[in-house]
Every structure is written in structure tokens, then in C-alpha cells.
């Protein structure tokens, strides 16, 4: 990094040099990788391990970090001691579900209710496979009911419990006899050797461990880092924790260590930072982004985009269809395999009355799927996909998706918000499937789901120059008066952080308490009755310490320091 470190970066480097465990909240585009390189440089010849989110990041880091730092993914760390021994199975052929069912001893279909179709052995085998995958993501030692996936059409608690009672013993037996042994016959994945390695509670032999994108770590990896007898530095953005659906947890919220921030973004200017801060306010995040003054950025409703970002796969396909019909070459990030599979399954259901696709296997007619997405809230995530299939036809969708071009040949790139994470484009348009919550008779005071707010934050921070926010401009109805300033609760969350703002907050509290609160109205002095008499573990203060959460809340409310 050629520029002078910011005060936030310098504070992180100093804390790391002091040997502290650190939890670094790094907002979008704030140069966290550059900061970690500064940390590694300051720690000199100490042995470090940098755990990257994917292999491309790990390879790039290995070229730029000091030679004293080993840069790998968690899977890369596990491959040498464990994964290498399973290499023949990792590269082995895929096993058809019907064959997997025979290996697992699943001979007969299972019927949970007499008026519903039974679950075929091959689909039960797929559910066991998903259960094993979720176990690999977890920190548990044994397979439990929580690892059994939800299934569309199996919506009641008794049905789910019955399915789990059937699947869990089969999954545990499959793990013990057909996964872990070298001679096992079931498909073996990279996540499986990582889990086997993690269960051995390995030590990495490092003086310090850097976990990047910590907010997206699954419990297996988070537990591995927590168990290290070394300095641990967790880095990520909790407001971008968007992979909970595949086993990730917010490892940062419970990670031990001094909490610091990176809030100066170098990706975009103030206008886009202001838009991002609206979503950080809704998320009640203690961090607010500061845009880079040297970058001109613009926020408008519509823009001729380099990229269109969507909430759902179905909307992404709709955008692809629209651009293709206009004659534009289009790229779809990640390709269209999931939608192609769903469209082909819909065609099977319509023509044959059955399909083994996991999303639709419990339905006997396409009309049942149509009713399900219209009448059952559990089917809302399929609604746009069903409408697309009804509008364009399954076969036309498949044909268009097989006509995609690589990104370097596309006039526009279409992506879901999930797949856009970690990417950036000059001009970004937000699609209109980011739905504003609507009041209903059953829910007269709706809230923005946290997952949706995080996806929105990820989406608006992909733009470098121009953001077309049409699909998310409704945020203005939900944003507090001044989203650039944290609320009382957010200040409370931030009061343990080592930022200049947090230090100033604590000093202001101490000043207010000095001289027995001289000059303050009597009612403002009431707050110190809740203050802790013991020395504060955060600042060392005693008696009337403003770091005490209850006391600090009272002081903030009375002085107006946290008012918007």
C-alpha cells in the first residue's frame, strides 16, 4: 500500500503489534487486505497463517504477503494432513441418487402423511447428502436434527420431526461407514475432509492467525480459529453476512478480542457512501462508511449499467431474457445451471406428473406448484420463477440461458446480490425485486428482514462511479433522520471499540461525571445510580464508569449525545 496508513489502519497495526486478539469490522471497500499486509509486515518474522475465503484470494495474498505468512483457504490447510489421503475419491465419478440409496440401505419410499405423495428412495438419499453437507458446515461432533434440511411441501412440525427421525440415523451411519473410511463408497467432497480435519482439533503452529471474511465463516472454520493457541485476528463486515442459508454464521459477533474499525472506503465517493449508510442504519451497525473524497460518485434512479444486480435468481433470468430479446449479449454471473434445472423439472412435472428435483419433488401437478406459491408464504421464494416459466415457457428459458456469453464479451452483466459479493463495477443498476415490506392484517407493522437489508447493503456498495438505485429507493421511507450518525444503541455497541469516536464517547462520559456532575440538571445525574462500582474491564475506570451499558445508555439518552 503506497499511501500513508489512515488513523484506523495505524490503530489496528499497533494493537496487533501489542499481541492483542483483534476483531476488525471492515466496511465495503475499506482496504482490509492492505491493512492485513501492514499487520503482517509489522509482526516481522513471526509465523502467520492467513485464511482466505477462496483460492484466488489466497493465491494473490501469497504473492503479496511476507514470506513468513502462509496464505491458504481452510480447505487448503486441511488438504495436506487429511484431504490428500482421499484424493482418489474426491476425483471419483458422481454417484446417481438411486445407487447412493442402495449403499445407504434405503429400499422403500417414506410417506409422512397418507394424503401426500411418498418420498422416493433416491430423493431420501439426496436429503441424506444435504444433511451430511450441513453437518460438515457445523461445529457439532455428531449429526443432529438441526442438520436435516427443510423440504418444500413438508411444512408442519410433526412432519419435519418424523422426517428427521428417519434421516439422522441413516446420515450418521453413512458418515461413519461410507464417508470417513478410505474405502467408503459414497461421494466424497472437499468439505468432508475439512470436517474430518477440524474434528481432530488441529493446531496450525502459527504465532498469529488472520481470518478474512470472518462474517461468512461457517461454524466449522470459526471453531478451528477459536481453538488456536495463537494470536487471532478476525476481519470482516458483519453487515455483509449473507451466506447464513448455506451454513455461515456471524463468527465475528462472538469472537474474543479488541474491536476496531475500518470505515474509510476507497471504492467509491461520498454519494454512494451516504446511500450505503442508510442500510447500515437500518441494520443498527455501529460502523458508518466515509466515501473517498477524490472519487466522484453519483446516485440516481436509472443508469445505463455495466451490471444489473437482482435479489433472486428468477429476476436475474428475467433481466437476461429482457436484454437478449433486445439483442444485447449478456453474461450471468455463476451461469444459469440452477434455473435451467428448475425449468427442466417444471417441464417434467407438466408432462409426466413427477420430478425428482428437490424443490418440486413433493408436487404431482404443476397447478399444485402454482397454488403453493400464491397461497403459502413458504413458497414465496419460488413465485417469480413460476411466473417466468408460465410466461416464457420452460424450454425457451433453457434455450436463452444456454446462449449466454462470457463477461468480457457482454454489454451487460447480470448477477444476484449473493454472487456479486466481492465484485465491483463502475455503473450498477439495482433491479426491482428488492421488495419493500408491506403492512398486512396479520402483520400491521412489518420490518425489513435483516437478510434483505444486508443484501441491499452489499448491492449498493458494488458501484464505484454511478449507482442506479431504482429498486431500493424505498429505503428513504425507512431511514432515520440522519443515517450518518449512529443511534444510542449503536453507540452502545461501539463503546467497546478502539475508534476515535468510541474513545471520544467514553471521554465525554467521564467529563460529564467529573466534579459530581457539576452544572448538570439534577435529573441528568440520576443515571449514575446504575453505574458499576467495580473497576471497568474496558477502560479501567471505577465507580461511575460510562462504559457500563446501562449507565452509558442513561447518560446518552439524557444528554442527547445519541439523538438523531
TrEMBL record:
Keywords: ATP-binding, Helicase, Hydrolase, Isomerase, Nucleotide-binding
Enzyme Commission number(s): 5.6.2.4
Enzyme type, top EC level: isomerase
Gene3D superfamilies from the UniProt entry: P-loop containing nucleotide triphosphate hydrolases
GO biological process assignments: double-strand break repair via homologous recombination; replication fork processing
This protein's record includes keyword Kinase: no
Keyword Phosphoprotein: no
Residues in UvrD-like helicase ATP-binding domain copies: 154-249
Reaction catalysis annotation: Couples ATP hydrolysis with the unwinding of duplex DNA by translocating in the 3'-5' direction; ATP + H2O = ADP + phosphate + H(+)
GO MF terms held by the record: 3'-5' DNA helicase activity; ATP binding; DNA binding; hydrolase activity
InterPro entries: DNA_helicase_UvrD-like_C, DNA_helicase_UvrD/REP, P-loop_NTPase, UvrD-like_ATP-bd
Domain UvrD-like helicase C-terminal: 409-467
Name under which the protein is recorded: DNA 3'-5' helicase
Lineage: Bacteria, Bacillati, Actinomycetota, Actinomycetes, Micromonosporales
